[in-house]
Model the fold of this input.
Amino acid sequence: MHIAIPLFPHFTATDAVGPYEVLSRLPHASVQFVSTHGGPVTSDTGFLAIDTIALADAARPDIVVMPGGPAPTLPFGDARLLDWLRAADAHTTWTASVCTGSLVLGAAGLLSGVRSTSHWAELASLTRFGAIPVAERVVFDGKRVSGAGVSAGIDMALALAARIAGDDVAMAIQLGIEYDPQPPFDAGSPHKAPAHVLALVHAKRALRAAAAA
Amino acid sequence: MHIAIPLFPHFTATDAVGPYEVLSRLPHASVQFVSTHGGPVTSDTGFLAIDTIALADAARPDIVVMPGGPAPTLPFGDARLLDWLRAADAHTTWTASVCTGSLVLGAAGLLSGVRSTSHWAELASLTRFGAIPVAERVVFDGKRVSGAGVSAGIDMALALAARIAGDDVAMAIQLGIEYDPQPPFDAGSPHKAPAHVLALVHAKRALRAAAAA
Done:
């Protein structure tokens, strides 16, 4: 079972590494981090780079997991990546995304009429690509599966692992990574965070969008 | 605020990347992934490599976050790494670990009499290093803080972020990474997982230990 995780400059690391951690533990799984040109690809903070192989050298994947990143830096203009995603999707058993990775799949034309989720702050952007936004943490629609923002990739991947290998294997993976979450705050969604914290996050996003414009 | 995350061959990726994702979002944070010799360091699955700089070239860290990996491959014999950890700890404001990373700090002599946690399956091993095992997800003891297995690094880092920058900043980071966990199963600790799933994980660990012996 070949799993490909495409990276691009400014990807969000946990979007990619969370699902990798879960799916790489499936029986007979192999994972390739891939990118348009190959070589190390640097994440959104500039502090972390993951080695990749070039798309041209990638095995044909059974599963694609597309991570996201900050909206201004998504690879909508990378025709080679979008072409590769379309070609890969023609043969996958599952095509998955995390966070704004769903917008990249959308830009590749893969989410027309497909129920999908994304990071809460970009959920409405899915309509630009004809997708149907669903405000849930994990959304399955046929062979397409999407997770919400960043950390949701772990939940998405566990749900996907259960579909692929059964509940016992998925639970064994969950136990192996001790995924018994105990966040110190209950502030992980815009419906739960205090209003002034939500305002902080919106302000930071506005600053980033302005800097990118 | 310089944060160093030491990597070693066969590290568990999420042990390192989970805390990185949280702490790199703190104001004025810079993160360096470091290793004994520098260059790409490959994780426990063999599928993921993160670029590092050599310990000799690392900035003096204010915070160290030591990730773990499978017990048979922990770098107990890497004297340069253990020396560097001791020297770094003399100047840190926080010395943190995730998963079996606490055993590495223990091997460096940094946990004598210190209350610490680790991956559930290796918690008792802390006594080899004079540490006091505590079966909690996040444990603070003075400037030392430890998280339990793998995914617990996210909870540990959010708790640490709150100590460093206040609750509002920590909650904004939590909201930014949409950390509103919804695991599909409640099997993330040995007290919650079904007995046959716990047996599966023990069997896999025994096989790995035998292969390493």
Notes: Residues 195-212 of chain A form the longest helix (18 residues). The helical segments of chain A are 13-23, 79-89, 101-107, 152-165, 167-176, 195-212. Chain A touches chain B through 66 residues (CB under 8 Å). Chain A has six helices and eleven strands.
